[in-house]
Design brief:
four-stranded antiparallel β-sheet; 2 domains; five-stranded antiparallel β-sheet; alpha+beta; single chain; 21% strand
């Protein structure tokens, strides 16, 4: 049996193996990088769905081509690696952080229950492991503490009053949108129709109808906050119940600067968390992959349900103003 690490080295060159199945390598598209290349910017993993991953985006086409070659070469021959302690890692298995082996049979079962095909599920499992390996570097490389977020805002809005905060946030929405604003239970009955209004109406009313909104607009006439009533105009709101304000900024910076998801605003919820408002993914596979990675980083996967309530700026929470602290120009 051919060692998959030898196959990987034949495609990417010398690999600085950090574990039995993962190491740093030279990016296949390094010449295309538009920013300086660090020694740890590109990683190759040979377990699960073998993957070359680079932090740069300008090399995307070259990395995709190398990944196709890597997966064809490794996928065409069965292999086994003996891990420390005598565990056997087979082709299709995934070595998780901590040395736990996720068997290929489990991956097949998950694929059956998820609606993904086997290759997609293997890729997803590998992506989770890569995200776990990268997580410590994320907070070091993309460190963006709360004080820096405030000072970096292209538009200085944090000190605006409640009405101005609310109306500034409304400008994120296209004029035709119907937006829900209310409390968590202001939904589901015909009398709740007043919480679903056009943006122009909310300009006149202000944020008096509740502390919450959604990342999605709704169909005219809606009175129930549900995915079925979303009209397709939406933002992805990213937040975490476990990461501190000085930590979640790293996730926002990574998404905006490396993954190129357009960051529109960051909202201080007047609690422990910040909410980042991004353009939503434009296809199912990208959304599924991003959801898996963000969950590993510590973000709340429920917000990929676009009818999930989130804090609206301009309203007060326990006497503190929910406010925009970073706004794109």
């Amino acid at each position: 049996m051919i060692d998959p690490r030898q196959i990987a080295a034949g495609i990417v060159g010398a690999v600085d193996w950090q574990t039995e199945v993962s190491g740093f390598c030279r990016c296949p598209g390094e010449s295309l990088h538009t920013h300086p290349t660090g020694k740890k910017d590109c990683r190759v993993s040979v377990d699960g769905a073998p993957t070359i991953y680079c932090f740069h985006s300008s090399c995307e086409a070259a990395v995709a081509g190398a990944n196709r070659a890597l997966r064809r070469a490794i996928g065409g021959s069965p292999w086994e690696i003996v891990l420390p302690g005598g565990k056997i890692l087979r082709s299709g298995d995934i070595l998780q952080t901590g040395g736990v082996v996720l068997p290929r049979e489990v991956i097949r079962a998950r694929a059956t229950g998820s609606g993904l095909n086997l290759v997609e599920q293997m890729d997803l499992e590998s992506l989770r492991v890569l995200a776990l390996r990268f997580k410590p570097e994320l907070f070091a490389k993309f460190h963006w503490p709360f004080a820096q977020i405030l000072s970096d805002s292209p538009l200085l809005v944090a000190d605006r009053d409640a009405d101005e905060q609310f109306r500034t946030w409304l400008r994120l929405w296209p004029a035709h949108c119907h937006v829900w604003i209310g409390d968590v239970y202001s939904s589901g009955r015909p009398e709740h129709r007043t919480h679903f209004r056009p943006v122009a109406d909310w300009y006149q009313i202000g944020p008096v109808m509740g502390n919450f909104t959604c990342g999605s607009a709704f169909k005219p006439g809606s009175f129930q906050r549900s995915n079925a009533n979303c009209d397709g105009t939406r933002f992805l709101v990213v937040e975490s119940d476990t990461l501190k304000k000085d930590e979640i900024g790293a996730v926002f910076a990574y998404m905006n600067n490396r993954l190129h998801f357009n960051l529109h605003a960051i909202i201080d919820t007047a609690g422990k968390s910040l909410h980042g408002w991004f353009d939503a993914p434009n296809n199912r596979l990208i959304e599924t992959r991003l959801k898996a990675v963000l969950h590993v980083f510590g973000c709340d996967p429920k917000l990929f349900t676009y009818s999930q309530p989130v804090r609206v700026p301009g309203a007060y929470r326990d006497g503190k103003l929910q406010r925009i602290v970073w706004l794109k120009n």
